[in-house]
Prior knowledge:
The protein is an all-alpha fold. Helix content is 84%, strand content 0%.
Amino acid sequence: MAKMTKAEREECEKNLEVCRSAVAAFEKLLAADDAAEKTAQASSDRETVAAIAKRDGMTAGVYAARELGRRGGPQS
């Protein structure tokens, strides 16, 4: 590749910074979405365990919590 002129190099550096900013923004969006999904799943699992415990008793609730933990749910 031929040597760039000063103007071409400045343009490339400017474009690179725009790209880096865009990547950082998308990474933040994805991280926020992941966090929201984990929070929603944990809330759903807690509600499921509470409903089972209320309906079938505490022992069934404990077993349900253990089972949810085995499949990647919240573990305590």
